[in-house]
Amino acid sequence: MTLPDEFVILFNNVLTEMKKESKVNQFLTKIQYDYTHEKDFVYGQKTGEFLGLLIGWWKARYAVDPNQEEFIEIIDMFQEHLDEIKLSVSNFKD
Q: How do the domains of the chain map onto residue ranges?
């Protein structure tokens, strides 16, 4: 199966935007989290936010959850780009 072109375009656009800014989401600054390494926290936040956005967009656009095959393909595509997200976070100035 191949994911729809519009989804792949969205994926690439979101990835590009997420790599531009590597700071903690402003909403999260209002919540107290006990973390030691800010870059690890930001990486976890960004990857979770990215994946949640992709799945949420899919559900809104197609009015269904991705089926198992689609979900696996989304996760595979997502995992291929984790190093790019990690690099953008590592370039974050403390």
A: 5-90
